[in-house]
Amino acid sequence: MADSSPNVVDPPTATGRTAGWMLALPLLAVAVYFARLLPAVAGGETFQFARDWVPSLGLRLSFTLDGLSLLFVLMVCVVGTLVLIYAGGYMAGRKYLGRFFTFLVLFTVSMLGLVLADNLLLLYVFWELTSICSYFLIGFESDRPQARAAALQALLVTGGGGLALLAGVILLARAGGSYELSALLNQGDALRTHALYVPALLLILAGAFTKSAQFPFHFWLPGAMEAPTPVSAYLHSATMVKAGVYLMARLSPALGGTELWLWTVTGVGGVTMVVAAWMSLTQSDLKRILAYSTVSALGMLTFLIGLGGPLASQAAMAYLIGHALYKGALFFVAGSVDHETGTRDINQLSGLGKAMPMTALASAVAALSMAGLPPLFGFIAKELAYEATLHAPAKIWITTAAVTASVLLIAAAALAGLRPFLGKARATPRPAHEAPLSMLLGPLVLGVLSLVFGVWPAWAADALVSAATSAVVGQQQSVHLALWHGVTPPLVLSAITLACGIAVYAARGLILRLSALWGRAAQWGPAGWYELALRGLNGLAISQTRLLQSGYLRHYLMITVGATVALVGYALFARGVWRANVDWTDLRIYEAALAALILMAILMAILKESRLAAIAALGVVGYGVALIFVLFGAPDLAMTQFLVETLTVILFVLVFYHLPEDQRVREGAGRWRDAALAIAVGGLMSALVLVGTPENFPPISSFFDEHSVPQGHGRNVVNVILVDFRAMDTMGEITVLSIAAAGVYALLKLRKRPDSVTDDVEQARAEDQAAVTSDVAPTPEPPKPPRATDLDEASASFILRPASRLLFPLLLLFSIFLLFRGHNEPGGGFSGGLVAASAFILYRFAFGVQATRGLLPVSPLSLFGGGLLISASCGVLALLEGYPLLTALWSTWFVPGFGELHVGTPLLFDVGVYITVIGVTLTIILPLAEE
Amino acid sequence: METVLAIVVGCLYAAGIYMMLRRSLFKLILGLVLLSHGANLLIFTVGGLTRGRPPIAPPGATQPPTPSADPLPQSLILTAIVIGFAVLAFSLVLFHRGYQTFGSDDPDDLKVSE
Hints:
The complex is a heterodimer of chains A (931) and B (114). Chain A is mostly helical.
């Protein structure tokens, strides 16, 4: 093995080389498996496999093997096998080989999926997977910025095209009623006249053109040469870039044959093949010459598929095979030359034939095939292409374009495949020597195939081309290829092409001078647009972020609120929903007084600078709202509101008791701007209330009124809704409560420095433990001597303590009464729980936190956890009985002297709510009171 | 009465938003409370007002007397009140800890301490 460090057996080197061979074997087996199907497929048989994946989206794991798929599968497998072996040698000794081979194999699988998929969505998934693999492989040497930029460029261009493809596929499925290719390909006539035909076609072509590097999206492919050479040979020449060609060929029975198809596909392909072939002559890097000539070949394939019909289709298929064979070999050779001499610059390379005879031989065969010379397969392919162009509409132009591209490609073939090996040997950065076996196998095998296919087409080439052409044309074709057809127009054209090609090669100096003149204009080419678009997009993102994300809470709020006012206000105005029910007649004097009280309290809350005054005003607002609930038939709401308002005031006072007053911030004109915005919001909400009254939108509650007693066994409809009809919502709500309480607990208990957090947790746990153990006997003992804090001192009055001692059990009893009567009368778990929590808080103000904790059988945290568990288990009970989650289960008992008694899970559910509310409230308030 | 309550709702919203735009976390939380009162009252009023007739069936009856107040908005508001309390508690405690850490009530001061 004549590698750079042959004597030292470097473990990664050995691994890499073996890995190539090892990974190649299974792929070879796949190739053999599929190759054995060739006779059957060439006979017109197709193989199918399908499983549902996401039926609701029309996404199926369906695969079909026909002639076109088989051609691509064999290309992927054969070239893939050689590439893996080659990469083992080429990449030996490099880092991250595992990653490299992983992506290479992942790509192989994706590519096989792409060409086998019958479902278009599935095809799209594989399509994008190949783009992603390509991204990682181009950027494999991620320490080089050029590699990263090229990888991103390739991803953005092909990914953008992929999105267009997805849109096109969806439109196509709309038009054809299925995502299955097998269904779509039969209804070409219906599709071509469908209204969605034009947009679907253009979007799908955008995907195909970006993927197959057609002008003006071609620029990413030369950039992709930053990838290691095996990747270039495989993805960016033989397989992935042909996915677009595959898609166009695949869909041509359904979408092809129209004027739009002909001129778009042929036009783009024609321009691409000529421009790229010209560009390839201006390069001096071996790989870039090959990249541009690949773009040119892809253009030729697109061009032929655009022409359509049996002749052009068989030419395209033959050209596809020919190109995969010679271009794969030439990339391998370029890689070997780079690997063994240290340079890819053709100006530094010459006379390598002596040092690398085998490589030179393979290169010569491939170059001659690329030039389209007999007896190689490239000759047959080119003859077929000429045959097709001579039968095309506007044949003068079409044929001239094909000849021009072929002429330029002959010069490119000589430049890349012959010139480095001829002439006098020159010194190279590394002394040139022959490549190792693993790197010779690929180019030699491909070269031999070029020769065998050319000399003996009946062996495999006939069957392959026939089968693939049948699939593209949509009817069975039988093709017989041959080198010699007699003196025909294509042969004459071939002769002219060769003569011109040699002349162009000789005149390359002129081409270089011409392109130098051109060079300044090149920055305005497609690659320049890409740069510009990328910079523009970044700039837009930065400026809109600066505009919208100032980092000031006020600004976010203003934008949100302002947008809401504008949009909702516009909707109200535009729809003319202005049947506001302004009606002063039914107003009662005490109601007006209540409203006035609330308004005044609001004003106080805004204007008072003293915090305590503002808190008091806030309390008045809350009580006022509660009174409104009382007046309008909502006793449950009123009770809850009164209790919560009380706790709110306590909470505010606890938090702000020790804090100094605000630093006053002078705000100036900002006040008026905020006031204007606030008034706009208020006006909008008032209008919404007036528009949204039940006269305009009849209520939907009659169901609950009617079914509450018969089915829910409760007369208080509000409570039945909470614990039965909408128990799932309530479950969610007590969960939110618990999360908020857990958050409060975390903020208050788990603090100090991060490194002492664990201590804190343990301390908190110890406290909870103490609380549990101290109350094995849960009788409310007379309080222990309280630990005095200043708040305790202040409250330890003569009246409060005895009163609390008396009130505490009474309040608890009352809360339980509320809980159990809640199903039929105002009350229930929420208000009961709040009353019970208030009892504990009262006790705390009288006797301190320690004593209050002593009253609880478990810690408040465990309390709300247990409550949640009880409520949830009610739901699970229903599941066990075979009903949906949280369905109410009832049983009726007859109690002597009382009558019928309904016992059911909603009552237990409400007990869970009750316990949760106690736990949550105490978890929040007790630690705060401790501070 | 709907008209009067519509005005009260509007004022609660306006006051809530105005307070939330002030450069004081205390006022922001106050605004939050006013806003939740406004939201509750909005649902209550839009659901329709019925004086003094709660949606409770008398003993022996199979459904509440007609007309009676709409139970659906009531059950919505009931949970909203309790959740509002929990959220308020959380924001108060957050404010409390923030104040202990940064020594300021001004949200703009918190911005530089990120």
